[in-house]
Amino acid sequence: MIGLNNHHMNHLVNWTMTHHSGSDVVAFYGKFLSLGDTTRPLRPNLMSQHKKTLKRYMKDLKAGRTLEDVMGPSWSTFVKRPKIVAWMSSHCPTQSRREAYVKELQKYMPVGTYGRCGTLVCRPTGPLKEPCWRHELSTNYSFYLSMENSLCEDYITEKLYNPYQYNLVPVVYGGADYTKYLPPHSYINARHYHPRDLAALLTRLHNDPVEYGRYHLWRGYFTASVRGSFCELCHLLHTSTTPSHHTHIGSWFMNRTMCHSPPKNMSELYNKNLT
Predict the structure, then answer these.
(1) Is the C or the N end of the chain the one with fewer CB within 10 Å?
(2) How far apart are CA 25 and CA 66, in angstroms?
């Protein structure tokens, strides 16, 4: 923010490119692509850009289709995990107080905690690395705590898309409206549950392969990717004819970010009215 607030830089910005949907170009950490679709939308991180696939998926979801119906015999590879939930983090404490939520959750169920904020180690490469996801998390856990370190509007990082890519169900915790970005019934929002109730839900789903498998049903319609895109920027460079110029870019960014601090009262961390 020092650079953004520098008065020498304030008048030099023509386009903005941040995580926020109000930017001229949106920079996102991951996205979904519709299976069988040869066209790619400029903002594939938005579910609204996958209307046909989303309509077909929702029809089958409401009809009660199971993961076995969609994926055949391979469905069982998604549901047979010995442990329930894991969390990896290298930063604590955080602005979002996610570590406080995890601590409360651990009163009601085991949580495999990796990284500097935890007690477990992924070997041989350590946490946050691809082999850790592939060989440790995806083979042992049903759920992953995708908890952002800041509660900001539209702020979603690779913490969310990694579990999707490695066949876990994410338990989200952040400031974004996840309904805009994720397939319905593909995630669980921790901020809608007291940790005691979340523990009961995750345990029940872990012990019910068919019901848990429905949280993977989306895989028959979409594929997830931990990768951004420069398509929108490239499109603007080739097609935009409207002059654009920003002033006071620091103020613009602060107004668009819409970050807020969680309440100090622990019980209010999981108030569904906050999201």
Answers:
(1) N
(2) 37
